[in-house]
């Protein structure tokens, strides 16, 4: 089993630590699946950091996004987790994508965008509709930035409409979610290992 891959979770909940977060629950499950493949992992709860609005790598004035960006660059697999709010990704998740726009102008020594060769999967939780649209929007943004999306690389849980319930309050993981988590992480690891051996062509 390979143990040289590292995963980073960006938990884009709106709840600061130590508040309980359903996004934390599903991303922890994904980290456990990745660990079963020998992949190490860590989590950043983005709301605990001072991430300034903007599209530059460093917006100054105490901006802490540069620290997050360096940890993204050091990871092989990005797990992007967000709750659903009014049918959309959280404002924290949107800000992360906006800040990652800066990575488009940064290239390696062969002219490739710095996120080429990194794999990303997406997790969405909420007690309202919107997960498919959020995953689609996030996939597009991450792919534009240079991340590679594996087959069936999104997982989600929505409760039935007009009957609020949080993922963190479930007594067990629904079988369909558990199976999707397993598929997403298995495919992410497979793809990351392939890319670690055969990076995209340079210019």
From TrEMBL:
Gene3D superfamilies registered for this protein in UniProt: 3.40.50.360
Domain NADPH-dependent FMN reductase-like, chain residue ranges per copy: 9-152
Species whose genome carries this gene: Nesterenkonia halotolerans
Matches recorded under InterPro entries: Flavoprotein-like_sf (IPR029039), FMN_Rdtase-like_dom (IPR005025)
Protein name: Multimeric flavodoxin WrbA
């Amino acid at each position: 089993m390979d143990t040289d891959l590292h995963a980073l979770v960006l938990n884009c909940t709106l709840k600061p630590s130590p508040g309980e977060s359903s996004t934390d629950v599903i991303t922890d499950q994904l980290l456990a699946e990745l660990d079963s493949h020998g992949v190490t992992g860590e989590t950043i709860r983005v709301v605990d950091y001072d991430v300034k609005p903007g599209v530059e790598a460093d917006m100054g004035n105490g901006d802490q996004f540069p620290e997050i960006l360096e940890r993204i660059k050091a990871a092989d697999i990005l797990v992007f987790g967000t709750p659903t709010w009014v049918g959309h990704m959280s404002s924290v998740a949107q800000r992360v994508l906006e800040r990652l726009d800066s990575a488009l102008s940064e290239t390696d020594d062969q002219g490739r965008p710095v996120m080429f060769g990194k794999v990303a999967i997406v997790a969405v939780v909420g007690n309202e509709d919107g997960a498919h649209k959020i995953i689609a929007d996030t996939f597009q943004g991450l792919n534009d930035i240079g991340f590679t999306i594996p087959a069936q690389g999104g997982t989600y849980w929505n409760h039935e409409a007009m009957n609020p319930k949080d993922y963190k309050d479930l007594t067990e993981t629904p079988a369909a979610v558990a199976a999707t988590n397993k598929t997403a992480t298995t495919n992410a690891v497979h793809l990351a290992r392939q890319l670690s051996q055969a990076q995209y062509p340079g210019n």
